[in-house]
Amino acid sequence: MEMKEAIVARRSVRSYTGEPLSPSLIDELAEFISGIKPLHDNIPVDIELYEAEDFHRDFARSAMYRGTDFVVLRSARNSQGYGQNVGFIGEMIALWLTHKGIASCWGGLAKQKTAPSRGQLPYMIAIEFGRGNNAPFRRLPEEAPRKKLHEILLNEISRPEYLSIIEAGRLAPSAMNLQPVRYYTRDDGIYICRKSMPLKNALIGDMQQIDVGIAMANMYVACDGDCVFVRQSAPPELPDDCIYEYTMRLN
Fold this sequence. Notes:
Distance between the termini: 26 Å
Radius of gyration: 18 Å
Mean pLDDT: 94
Shape: globular
């Protein structure tokens, strides 16, 4: 399976066989992680691989997660875009796992039991993974419980080549499947936005910034990485309930 195919194939899996993954696959994953180009290379990020026993020892509210292994993502929080950066990196990992036939699920509810130690970056989120238990990969986009294209587009698509890229973003997972990402297109790029929450909630706000990065990773893979993401000082006028995030420009 190619990484592009993994965009459709991947689903959130919460049931695992418990079969250990081979050390060689874990080594290969670590090598892949070391080569990921982040959304923001100026924001410090740490990525740790945990076996299940160690993860459950160090993280509260982890009993619901049944994977054999975990990716733990930590990040500095003092720069704009840190949540989006974590989401982008994490989804690249999730797509790679799918491409290798490994099931996964974002674990947004786990919480580190102790405060970060000296020099340790704050915990952001985890991804559980392993051999899925009776969890076949998705075959068709229609199988995904996602909003329809017209529900996430803020205007008509201005260039036909944008359609497959926005479709990849549409298929991205999101916290509680709220699907906050919206798209506005012009000839100069795809404007990526986030629908604001009617009620302010710090946790959901953080998670939805991660959701934006997850969608952007899908979009990046869909165009073979032949793009750049920038933040514009003067984006187009958007609906009042939409927050501008990034502009994706094709190379």
